[in-house]
Design a protein that fits this description.
261 residues, mainly alpha, Hemocyanin, N-terminal domain, 33% helix
Length: 261
């Protein structure tokens, strides 16, 4: 898949896209993930409800590089063509049939995985409960962080003390600044929560254990280049109503110095 332009028509080329995990090409096969298998069955039902029964006829959902792929669908909302294969009996839209119905393409199964062992409940390996949250916090616009801190700080004031402390503990595990700023709303610091142990269901990584030992004093910075752009906000600006009404042609604010509304 090559992304080389923005869509020209948002509705036709974006809103009517009907992704489906059951649409595979040769060389790909399903994993043993039970959630994926369940979603594979539900996606097509979702598309029929969201887009329409003939969603596969829409150009944005049609296969590329082949003449056509035929289904048993006949008529219905938004149908704009008779879905007939070459030589197919137009009165037969089921299979198998001895009167000229569709026939399935030749199956080309991939090598099936061979798995042996015992299934047991256990924590997943290579887990990290805080890295992505830290990356998101660092790569937010400064005014977005301000709004987030103010929102969380205002709400956590209503919580029970033990909930406040655990919540603040998690924020310090994410980023020094995050915990410090939200803690100001409840007059608590890292010293007030550093005695807390990880939750019984948590398995901290080596990095997280080091963070816990230096809770609130990990020297966290705001260098977004460390994280690239994979969690960053869209480059935008917070503006006042007056600026919107007067036009934004001369607006030249960076991500970090946009004015407060």
């Amino acid at each position: 898949m090559t992304l080389n332009r923005n869509v020209d028509d948002h509705h036709n080329e974006n809103e009517q896209i009907a992704m489906g995990t059951g649409v595979l090409v040769d060389g790909l096969d399903f994993s043993d993930d039970k959630m994926l298998i369940g979603r594979t069955f539900s996606y097509s039902d979702t598309q029929r409800y969201r887009v329409g029964p003939n969603y596969l006829q829409l150009p944005v959902n049609s296969p590329k590089g082949v003449k056509s792929v035929h289904t048993h669908q006949r008529g219905g909302l938004m149908s704009y063509g008779v879905d007939l294969a070459e030589g197919q009996n137009p009165h037969v839209n089921y299979e198998p049939s001895i009167t000229g119905g569709l026939t399935e393409a030749e199956k080309k199964p991939n090598n099936q995985p061979e798995i042996t062992g015992r299934v047991a409940p256990a924590n997943i390996e290579r887990r990290n409960d805080y890295m992505q949250a830290r990356a998101r916090y660092v790569t937010m616009n400064a005014w977005e962080r301000d709004g987030l801190v103010e929102e969380l700080g205002g709400m956590i004031q209503e919580a029970a003390p033990q909930v406040q402390e655990r919540f603040l503990w998690h924020l310090f595990m994410i980023h020094d600044d995050y915990g410090t700023r939200v803690g100001e709303f409840i007059s608590k610091s890292a010293d007030d929560v550093k005695h807390l142990e990880p939750l019984s269901t948590q398995t901290l990584t080596e990095e997280e254990q080091k963070r816990l030992q230096n809770l609130g004093r990990n020297g966290d910075e705001f260098d977004s280049t460390v994280w690239g752009t994979w969690t960053s906000s869209v480059v935008n600006h917070q503006v006042t109503a007056e600026q919107v009404m007067n036009g934004l042609g001369s607006l030249e604010y960076t991500r970090e110095d946009a004015p407060a509304a």
